[in-house]
Amino acid sequence: AVRNYSEVWNDPSVNFPLYLRNTLIVAALSVSGMVISSAIVAYGFARLRWRGRGPLFALLLATMMIPFQVVMIPLYLIIARLKLVDNLAGLIVPSAVSAFGIFLMRQFIEGIPGELIDAARIDGASEFGIYARVVFPQMGPALATLGIFQFMGTWNDYLWPLIILRTTERRTLPVMLTWYNSQHGSRFDLTMAASVLVILPILIVY
Questions:
Q1: How far is CA 13 from CA 16, 17, 99, 188, in A?
Q2: Deepest of 175, 184, 194, 202, by most Cβ within 10 A of its Cβ?
Q3: DSSP state, 135?
């Protein structure tokens, strides 16, 4: 069994460590960007009062009902205009903002007692100070949950990397795994070992 993992890892035709590095870079930056942006935007929706907040939040929720296949072509045209095709940034930038992440963070922030925020305002704290010193430190469980969801989604994403990435050296593990299965379809021991190696980081993060 150990020999199968070693054969997959050291296979010169696959370069598994390179694909692992690409996937880790995309997953780490996507999770970081999405968690940070969702937490900041959610605070604005949950605790700040401004005109149009309700309709804009409803519009944001409505975007969650749009399938990815509908926005795939417009998104590709935008990525192409930004010259991010065949670049790992083309995977990271679209995932930096998430309607689901903003919704999840907003619901969590609304559960934080308003008395804590009012006390900070009375003490003269700015809105960013309230967010950084009062709200953000209490968001650990929600941020961890959102981070795990985003990591799993990014790690397992297949369709968008298949469209964006053209160079073999820039591909991610799910794309590599499909190619590996097609090349070693008769070697079930190797394909199963490769699948375990792809799944293992998700189990570690969880």
A1: 9, 12, 39, 17
A2: 194
A3: I
**Above pLDDT 70, what percent of the chain?**
98
Angle at 72 (CA atoms; ends 66, 74), nearest 5 degrees = 100
Rg (CA), the chain: 21
| Whether 150 contacts 30, CB under 8 Å | yes
C-beta neighbour count of 25 within 10 angstroms: 15
Residue 160's pLDDT band (cuts 50, 70, 90): very high
Cα 68 to chain centroid distance, Å, stands at: 15
Cβ neighbours around 61 below 10 Å, total? 13
What's residue 113's pLDDT?
A: 87
pLDDT at position 154 is 92
CA distances from 117 to 47, 72, 104, 188 (A): 9, 40, 20, 58
Q: Looking up tokens 């190696």, which residue turns up?
A: 197
Report residue 143 as tokens: 């941020």
Q: What is the pLDDT of residues 20-54, one digit of tens each?
A: 999 999 999 999 999 999 999 999 998 888 898 88
